Write a sequence for this structure.
């Protein structure tokens, strides 16, 4: 008898769980133009010089949220069509001292710059001209519960955040 009561109870719970009611009303539309997806873009042929005070600023359009983060990578090598990226800041050593590429950002712009502990005019042209940088925007909500990843590895970041970098948008 206990088995029969148990069987009836299980069948009744299954039948009641599978019932559906009418569909609810459509929710309000989201904010137009806002995307909470991670993205990547590139600035090419970057030239630092005394005229721009070794400092270049680019606008972000659309702007990012205050909680978002921005990562910048320098193209350091291309071998057999495979790009190698190094995360900024990136320090280099010269006979005259050390210099580094670095960046800062706010919600509507970011800046790339060179910092050195010697006269900037002594930097070789290969260090100041024709540089390529990749910028990765990571929405702040991704940080909640995110596992630790190696942010210095561009390819791991792109894979982790499921970013398509096959057609990267160029900034001027």
């Amino acid at each position: 008898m206990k088995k029969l009561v148990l069987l009836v109870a299980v069948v009744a719970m299954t039948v009641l769980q599978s019932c559906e009611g009418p569909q609810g009303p459509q929710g309000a539309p989201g904010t137009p133009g806002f995307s909470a997806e991670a993205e990547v873009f590139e600035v090419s042929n970057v030239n630092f010089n005394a005229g721009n005070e070794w400092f270049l600023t680019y606008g972000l359009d659309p702007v990012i949220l205050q909680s978002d983060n921005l990562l910048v990578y320098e193209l350091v090598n291309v071998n057999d069509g495979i790009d190698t990226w190094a995360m900024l800041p990136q320090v280099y050593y010269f006979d005259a001292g050390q210099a580094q590429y670095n960046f800062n950002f706010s919600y509507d712009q970011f800046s790339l710059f060179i910092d050195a502990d010697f006269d900037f005019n002594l930097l070789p042209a290969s260090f100041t001209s024709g540089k390529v940088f990749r910028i990765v925007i990571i929405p702040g909500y991704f940080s909640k519960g995110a596992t630790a990843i190696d942010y210095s590895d561009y390819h791991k970041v792109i894979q982790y955040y499921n970013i398509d970098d096959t057609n990267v948008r160029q900034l001027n």
